[in-house]
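Notebook, student rotation project (T.W.).
Task set for the rotation: take a protein with a known small-molecule partner, predict the structure of the complex, and write up what can be learned from the model alone. Partner molecule chosen: 2-acetamido-2-deoxy-beta-D-glucopyranose. Sequence and SMILES entered below by T.W., checked by me.
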Amino acid sequence: MESVGYSLCRIWLFFLLFWLVQGRQMAPPGFVESTCRSRIFWMKLNKHLLQGKFFQLEINDPYAGPILLDEKLASRCGYVLSEDVWGNPVFRASVLGCHVTNEADELFSLTVNIKVSSFSSMRAAVTYTYPMYCSYSSWASREIVCEENYMEVSVKTDVPAVSNDYTVAWMSVLPETQNVAYQLWQLMFVSPSGRKRITVSDAGKLGYSFNNTLSRVYLRAPYHSNESDVSLVSGVNMNMVTSTSMYRQRWLLLLIDTTVSCPVDGTSFTDTALTWTVPSVIPTLVVQESTFMSKNILMGVDGQVIVNPEEKNYLLEHNETHIGITIPIGAEGGQLKSSISGGVYGVTYSIDLFLEHTWTVADWQTTKYTVIRSITTPFMPQIPTVTNNTLPEERLFNIAFGHFLPDVSLVAIAIGNVPFTLREAQHHGFRIYETPISNRMKEFILEVSFDDPYVLKEYVNRNETKYTLLVNYTLSVGPEMTLWYHSAEVECVIADIELPEAVGYCDEENLYLAIPTFGLHQYWNLYLGNKLLNRLIVLTNGYLAATNSTHLILQIPLFATGVIYEDVSFQKIKARFDVALRKVRTMETLQMFSVSCNFNSSAFIICHPDGTISVSAQMKTVPAIDMSKTKLRDSSCKPREYNEGHAFFKFHITTCGTSARFEGDYIVYENEISYEKETLPGQSVPTITRDPDYRLTVSCYYRAKETLVLGAFTSDPSTSPHFGSGTMVARSNTVAYRRTRQALNVISRVSKDDSFVEFYEPNVAILKRPVEPVFLEVELKDENPDAELYLENCWVTGSLDFNSTPRWNITVDGCEIKGSVYIAEVCPVAVGPRVRHPSHFKRLAVRTLAHQLEQMYVHCLVTVCSPTSILPAGPCRGQCSSSKERKAFPGHRAANLQGYVLAGPVWIVDPELR
Ligand SMILES: *[C@@H]1O[C@H](CO)[C@@H](O)[C@H](O)[C@H]1NC(C)=O
Ligand SMILES: *[C@@H]1O[C@H](CO)[C@@H](O)[C@H](O)[C@H]1NC(C)=O
Ligand SMILES: *[C@@H]1O[C@H](CO)[C@@H](O)[C@H](O)[C@H]1NC(C)=O
Ligand SMILES: *[C@@H]1O[C@H](CO)[C@@H](O)[C@H](O)[C@H]1NC(C)=O
Ligand SMILES: *[C@@H]1O[C@H](CO)[C@@H](O)[C@H](O)[C@H]1NC(C)=O
Ligand SMILES: *[C@@H]1O[C@H](CO)[C@@H](O)[C@H](O)[C@H]1NC(C)=O
Ligand SMILES: *[C@@H]1O[C@H](CO)[C@@H](O)[C@H](O)[C@H]1NC(C)=O
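Predicted structure of the complex:
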């Protein structure tokens, strides 16, 4: 490589002179860097010192002063202003360029003014004067430079050796030379459109530059001028200007071939490499191809000759037709750059190459052919990868997003659609950092805990949680800092949910299930058959539900709805209760909680779903009866087992004389256990025995709808646990019976509303909202039309026990009490379809504003005044006044019949609660 040949002393002198004369500043250190590559001035500015600034270059002509560099000037004068692959401004100039001081074709100097301003108008610009020097003496006979914006040929004007070869093509221009003016250079262009002979000054107007130096002439031509032609040489398009320069002075005629030809393409790309091909032999430049000899091929990158291309993985190849340089994409010396094109992320690779080919042919001695070329690959789309390095054991999402060049940065991130700046993200607790993958690539790591509120969580399968992290990265890409978004979704399923296990146990009358409350209603719900086990169901079915901080404890009375009787025998019941744990959304059953116990129970009736009735009847009569003689209506139906006080019957509703009737929504199957008195056969007079007469009515209530829908009773209780409910009512003809008759036959019902038309069925839970009144009707049955019923004392309690406390009086001595927590209001009774004698009915609406009870009972002591009783009915009239009258006639009271009715339970349910 040629280097500066001036003595240090002379340079300094030159410098100092400039500085003092022009009063201009010297460039700051590191701002400008220059070298002499072969015969080209090569100057580079540091882009970092130009950040946010504007700059201009001026060429400093030693005589004419500064000339602003523009594109037109550049191609005519042999200058190039461009950028290297790193974005640093680059200025190149041929030593044969304009305004270059040439000393004997050996020493060259060019001074450039670099103007830097903070304004695009270049106001208040600072000017740095920068002189460059080149020493170049190893000129080849012909030198051709193919620059980015011009082609230049220079030829030594030595008289060539005498040759006998007259076939040389350019000799054909000889006739033209006759007209060449004396002492004037003229140029003859040969192009497809014909020949054109012009003066040097006219050539200058066409963009050419022609001149001579001490020992050379040169022609500089722009690409694609009118006089040029494009032809394909070995598959590469060449732009060619065929010209002859002529000089005539008296007896001297000088004709110089100044033909120049430069490649305009020849680059090709694969995914992994770029290849630049230049023809080895360019026919228009090699007139006698047979004598062509390639002497030297050099390649260079970024202005530097590469002596051993293979060390950098470059490939320099040549054969008779081609010289090829192959550079792997991403190889050292070039630059990868990120960018966004059409919304797609990708990279390009650029490299500044040059090629220098030296050859000889007999006639021309040596030709040095230099091509300088900056090559950029087409946009190569890249798909960034999101790598899932999640650590389930640590409950941590770890995702790597890459691979990116250093010119890509992460500027923001959205997690679960919530945008965060990087600072906010760090502050929130997301970890975000960059790690290098290779010396050039990097990736962004994001760490987010599964338990972060912005992570989506979904309960899946039996005991698993699906954690989903939604990320939307905002990247700043490339030198243009284009914003680009990329979203990713990572999920991880781990079994981190423990399914609850229930514990079941029993006491003498109840079954219990203790179920952990963790996840209840969030992940799963409890179901009784197909019904959600909520507070309403619990109340309706007569269960009790209690919770402590960890468990829900269900108490299920043995004879409550929902209990399955697995085995029922004499005084023994094996009962089971099942609750299903189901997923909240899908209702899929995850687990069955069961409690199963054996109970000893002396008296019960169980109405099985298959229509079988099991009765364990307790018969306490005085004197005791012989249990073996008890029977059902069909006297062939005898007890299956018995002992002194108990008899066990088991029969189907279709047998043993069982009767059926409808009662509201229910079908009631009834039979009767009775005891047959012993009679002596053949005697007309009944024998008086000590055996008491005994009757026990057993009834089973089945919901008519279910029974009808199912068409038949099913024998599998698990699929259809629709047990009926049973009652046993004893009736005795002896003492007990008579005593009953002494009491009034009064019944109470609860009406659905104040019309007193529809009533709640017996054995059906009555549910009321706290604000709804309870409509109570009391009816006197089987009395003569003149009798009149009075509600003497009525009160509300939470229990069916007559003596239970607390109690709230609602009527006292037939009068409504004001100011109590529970208030009764008497509703009028008129004759209607149900009411023949309004005096046999009393109706109350019981309300409260402050419910204290979950279940309430209304108790009433009633009295009946009858005109047919032995005492006059008169004093027993009216309600409130009656008590005063009664007080006045205390004796009357005993004459009136008294009774007691109980209504309830009425469950007070807040529908908001489960
Ligand atoms: C040719 O070079 C000489 C000496 O450098 C110069 O004075 C002259 O202007 C140049 N002519 C053209 C046409 O560039
Ligand atoms: C020379 O190399 C080029 C490109 O590698 C190839 O296309 C051509 O066929 C080669 N020519 C000869 C003569 O081998
Ligand atoms: C990511 O964020 C950008 C900018 O807010 C938005 O345009 C884009 O739709 C988001 N992508 C997804 C998948 O949410
Ligand atoms: C991510 O990694 C976790 C842990 O190895 C794995 O469970 C999960 O299936 C992976 N897949 C996706 C798509 O996130
Ligand atoms: C989750 O359920 C599977 C079977 O469905 C079981 O093997 C596993 O042990 C359970 N894991 C936990 C944590 O409960
Ligand atoms: C809650 O009740 C369950 C079942 O009786 C019992 O096992 C548990 O220890 C109780 N928890 C607390 C905190 O008292
Ligand atoms: C309710 O009435 C009964 C009978 O009249 C009476 O003994 C009792 O004291 C009354 N209770 C209240 C709280 O008023």
